[in-house]
């Protein structure tokens, strides 16, 4: 079962998707350098620890982030998140160009983000 380490309200939320994957959600309160460690059987997975910087986002800015924007494996879903909080009403379009047809699924998370896979 997934576990978390952190202090106080800075603990991430981990959800078992019951399909062999988990989702991790973290709402950083401050800008700065962060490190995410992911371990399986007490061993770091490839790439862990992941180091990243949290910056402030201007209201109205639409951004996208996640592993599906940088790499993937043929036959596996490539997931990423689009952040739209504060952007106001509008039409969001997602397209993927490549050597094969992409079946794109979008899910409104009702929190200003959209999950794309």
UniProtKB/TrEMBL annotation:
Keyword terms: Repeat
Ranges of the Filamin repeats in the UniProt entry: 1-54, 54-117
Pfam name, any one: Filamin
Any GO MF annotation of the entry: actin filament binding
Keyword Repeat in record: yes
The keyword Flavoprotein is assigned to this record: no
A biological process term (GO) from this entry: actin cytoskeleton organization
PROSITE patterns linked to this entry: FILAMIN_REPEAT
InterPro entries noted in UniProt: Filamin, Filamin/ABP280_repeat-like, Filamin/ABP280_rpt, Ig-like_fold, Ig_E-set
Chain residue ranges for the region called Disordered: 1-22
Family, per entry: Belongs to the filamin family.
Name of the protein in its database record: Uncharacterized protein
Source organism phylogeny: Eukaryota, Metazoa, Ecdysozoa, Arthropoda, Chelicerata
């Amino acid at each position: 079962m997934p576990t978390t380490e952190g202090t106080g309200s800075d603990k991430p939320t981990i959800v078992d998707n019951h399909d062999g994957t988990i989702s991790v959600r973290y709402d950083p309160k401050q800008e700065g350098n962060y490190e995410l460690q992911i371990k399986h059987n007490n061993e770091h997975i490839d790439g862990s620890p992941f180091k990243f910087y949290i910056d402030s986002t201007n209201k109205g800015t639409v951004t996208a982030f996640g592993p599906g924007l940088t790499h993937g494996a043929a036959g596996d879903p490539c997931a990423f998140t689009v952040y739209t909080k504060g952007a106001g009403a509008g039409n969001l379009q997602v397209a993927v160009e490549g050597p094969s047809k992409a079946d794109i699924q979008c899910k409104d998370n009702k929190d200003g983000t959209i999950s794309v896979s």
